Amino acid sequence: MRGTPIWLHSALLISSVRESLLPSLMTVGVLILSRVKVTDIPGYDRLVKLGTERKGAILFDVGCCFGTDIRKMAADGWPADSILGTDIEPKFWELGHRLFCSTADTFPAVFLPGDIFDLTHLDPVSAEDRTLLHRGPTPMPPLRSLTSLSPLRGYVAAIHAGAFFHLFSEER
Ligand SMILES: C[S@@+](CC[C@H](N)C(=O)[O-])C[C@H]1O[C@@H](n2cnc3c(N)ncnc32)[C@H](O)[C@@H]1O
């Protein structure tokens, strides 16, 4: 590399190291994201009890990625068909099925892809509109029929958002 300007040399070096490290970094990423973390929550046992004891209790996981934590909660007793996950990247959910050797039939938790900040995905309720949070006489829509998260307002028993908030600025 004699004669190559130092800035170009550095740029090439960084780029080549990054290329060669990419598969390893991706493996590390998959390992981290496929590690169960929800059990680290101090109230985990109470959380699972809620799902096992309250009939039809809905669990909602924001930024669920491969669905690792959802799967753990289902394995511990929360009925899988009462669990809903959302993630901005739908490929993660597909990868989750491959990673855990499942299908939508063998693992019937519902996945609804979308950006949690997208108002067509979830229309938030302002403090003034709190009455909207109270369940009306209408029954909860079947999870499988949902095309957005908004109809779930007032029906969710527990929300899990693991390793999620640090991704965003405080304002967001
Ligand atoms: C660091 S991972 C955490 C995954 C998992 N909850 C865990 O604890 O291992 C963050 C996840 O949030 C998802 N995500 C990022 N921004 C999002 C958004 N605006 N709406 C929904 N999901 C989002 C990412 O695709 C990713 O799967």
TrEMBL record:
Belongs to the class I-like SAM-binding methyltransferase superfamily. Residues 1-19 form the signal peptide. Keywords: S-adenosyl-L-methionine, Signal, Transferase. GO terms for molecular function: transferase activity. This is Methyltransferase domain-containing protein. Pathway: Secondary metabolite biosynthesis.
